[in-house]
Design brief:
single chain; about 475 residues; four-stranded antiparallel β-sheet; three-stranded antiparallel β-sheet; 22 helices; about 50% helix
């Protein structure tokens, strides 16, 4: 599951069952969740059961999976249950069995076969040729808005990026602060550790991070989060370059058009217009093909489908850095941890010093994040060496970081007091599989996780199976 899928899945998992029931009434939502959030094995289960009218015994389900893949089967079934897609049949006197829930099954069938008057995939609108907006114009608008957002986060370094980017509305700035991506003190805006990690993500993951923050904030504004989610999933199924009518949108979704325009996800030449255009940021929301690279390079790749994803950074063993770029966004990011000295039309140079690295660390950026950024953007000539980055530079960056660190704290939950080794090993292994395991001690049968909801659901499902088995 990609980073963007994980972020959106964590939000969906926190919703009550009644919300899923309303969400799945929209075929576009059922199709988006099927495409974006389910692993291949879970998709196979859904497609095999989609037209079944009777529950499927668990013994029949197990015959579809190789004996050595029981863990993958349990993970897929558990995921489908948590998304309210699969339910257990509770008929007395019958073996344990599963069937797809409604309305998910009926909505997915309708999405795959067509028909109906649900209009959940948008209403295409005819626009006079003289007023049509081209895909190139949509891409330029999306890039300007999104790089304006990233520029606001890293543009406090004196590069002057904000003047070249889009004008962000106060609501967007509030959202970035609410999500802990920037720290605002008076007129000063500093990027945080989470903010720098956000900048390093692929663009699709960045968009979903912002949208989940928007969802959390929308609830405080009294917006119906079912309408919000349905609209976001619908956007992922729309056609790039096609205009769509606002006629079937709810009041919440009409308000969203104004907010999503600030992010570059929706284009409207005039807020009073009866039409809107989804940009490439919207049409790739539910696409697995949107696994892009880093922030700026990835965005260019998304907008231009370019295969030219070359690095641009040279680093010498004396900590001098040369970057072949004219992008204000990339320059602003480099200036967060580099003392820049010279700027040419297509290149900048500078030096990483103790002071520049410590300044970045004081903003919450970690040494590993800096190393990862440099590795990701290393020039092709540097990639010809075995280590890519000079080991002395990598070691020194980490040494500068630990000068002020002796202990690292992790917020999470401790699981202990397991009766047997088998009882301990199952949830511990599951925690590692889903990426929430932070520490374990096999001898004492203890493990520490960053999130507990999925582990609790796993333990509950195991307990229910033991009860059913008698």
């Amino acid at each position: 599951m990609s980073a963007s899928s994980v972020r959106s899945f964590e939000y969906l998992e926190s919703l009550p069952g009644t919300v899923f029931n309303r969400l799945y009434k929209q075929p576009s939502t059922a199709l988006a969740i099927f495409r974006r959030m389910l692993p291949h094995l879970a998709k196979s289960f859904v497609m095999a059961m989609l037209y079944m009218t009777r529950p499927l015994p668990v013994t029949d389900l197990e015959t579809w999976v190789r004996p050595g893949s029981r863990r993958e089967q349990d993970t897929a079934v558990d995921l489908l249950e948590r998304l309210q897609i699969l339910k257990r049949s509770a008929e007395p006197g019958t073996p344990r069995s599963y069937m797809l829930t409604n309305p998910f099954a009926s909505s997915l069938r309708q999405a795959l076969t067509g028909g109906g008057n649900h209009k959940s995939f948008g209403i295409p609108s005819d626009v006079p040729s003289k007023d049509e907006v081209t895909i190139s114009q949509l891409d330029d608008f999306a890039r300007k808005q999104w790089e304006g957002l990233l520029g606001y986060m890293v543009g406090s370094t004196g590069i002057g990026l904000r003047d070249e980017g889009a004008n962000l509305s106060p609501s967007v700035k509030h959202l970035l602060q609410y999500g802990g991506l920037v720290d605002v003190k008076g007129r000063n805006v500093d990027i945080t550790q989470d903010g720098f990690a956000f900048v390093l993500q692929e663009v699709n993951a960045q968009v979903w991070t912002i949208l989940v923050l928007y969802l959390e904030n929308a609830e405080q504004l009294g917006m119906d989060h079912v309408d919000v989610l349905s609209f976001l999933f619908m956007l992922g199924s729309l056609e790039l370059g096609q205009a769509y009518s606002k006629a079937n949108l709810t009041e919440t979704q009409l308000q969203m058009l104004l907010d999503l325009r600030d992010f570059g996800i929706i284009y409207q030449d005039n807020p009073a217009s009866n039409n809107y255009y989804p940009t490439r940021l919207a049409t790739t929301l539910t696409s697995d093909a949107g696994a892009l690279g880093s922030a700026s390079a990835g965005f260019d790749s998304a907008l231009h489908s370019s295969t030219n994803d070359k690095g641009f950074v040279f680093i010498e063993t004396n900590y001098r850095l040369y970057a072949y770029t004219s992008s204000p966004l990339q320059i602003a990011i480099l200036s967060l941890f580099t003392r820049l000295s010279t700027r040419y039309p297509n290149m900048i140079s500078g030096k990483m010093t103790r002071e520049s690295i410590r300044r970045a660390i004081s903003m919450g950026i970690t040494g590993d994040q800096i190393v990862d950024f440099l590795y990701t953007h290393a020039h092709p000539q540097m990639r010809k060496t075995e280590t890519v980055l000079p080991p002395t530079v990598v070691d020194q960056i980490r040494l500068w970081q630990i000068e002020g660190e002796r202990m690292k704290s992790t917020v999470g939950f401790l699981f202990k007091d397991f009766s047997t080794a088998a009882e301990y090993e199952g949830p511990c292994r599951y925690a590692g599989d889903i990426g929430v395991l932070a520490w374990k001690n096999d001898a004492k049968r203890m493990f520490f996780v960053t999130k507990h909801e999925q582990i609790a659901a796993y333990l509950k499902s195991k307990k229910d199976k033991r009860v059913e088995g008698g």
